[in-house]
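Holo prediction — manganese (II) ion.
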Amino acid sequence: MNKPCLLPDVDWTPLVQRLRAAGCVHLVTHRMPDSDGIGSQIALFHALGSMGLNVQMYNADPVPRICRYLDGAELIAHGDTPPVADVVIALDAGSAARLSFSFPDDCCLVNIDHHASNNGYGHINMVDARYPATGAMVYDLLLALKTPWSPAIAQAIYAAILTDTNAFRSETVTADLHRLVAALIDAGAQPALAAQHAYASHRPTRFVLLREALDTLKLYDGGRSAWMYLTQSMLLQSHCRLEDSEGFIEYARSIDGVNVSVLLCQTGADEWKVTFRGRGACNVGDLASRLGGGGHRHAAGCTLYGSRGEVTQHLRQNVEALLGTCGE
Ligand SMILES: [Mn+2]
């Protein structure tokens, strides 16, 4: 059966032509990579390799635990010195700052991303917020490249889509997306394996941290906003890293009547990584952009500086204003 393209009106031709003329390609995703970034990277790595290109995967940060089972994850290097390449493809990175590298002027920077807040920092920009995941963009790109499919490629793209749709629970899930996913399963993707690694492979210490985080859960704005925080001492005491808190915000988000949820994670003495989730008309992507970050309509984030009290107060005002504009 032919694989269905997800968004047939997207023109991949300029990128396909550039890749056919490429020699060395460097694939990179954002800092603190997630399954969408890593899955996209691995799928494209296998596909471009089958075209005979010299492909390398290199990120600022290591591969998170939940992605290490993917075939090819062991080939992803990390550090501060990216490889030299004539084409650099940034995947799932909403801004150049999220990559943490600067690239030589003579390389062609390709920006493949589905964040609405993406500012088009590449020489070739394939940015489309209609896609549920960057992995789904790579799927359409591979159809345009006409490269052969393998179970490793299908699994990597499946993993990307699974987590970016919050396990097929987001508003971005459509019948066309399910047809795409069916094609991935036909090509060898294993949904149960992906779910096992994404949602049932936590370290026990995560639950020590979760208990701490849930202790901080508070509702404000008449029950329409839910707030949680994590400090560095909580991480230290529970022997956890920031990646162990992946998914904590879903507890705040899952409360009936909550339209905006906020998780503050302390990443430095006066530095806070803020994660937002929105519901209905509450566009937290716009809010995060105004605060110097970015993301999607219902999932976004930013970094703020100050004491927890200062940052919380600033956020409370902004969230209250947002709730005021998006009705019940
Ligand atoms: Mn993504």
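READOUT: Residues 205-325 form a domain with the Diaminopimelate Epimerase; Chain A, domain 1 fold (CATH 3.10.310.30).
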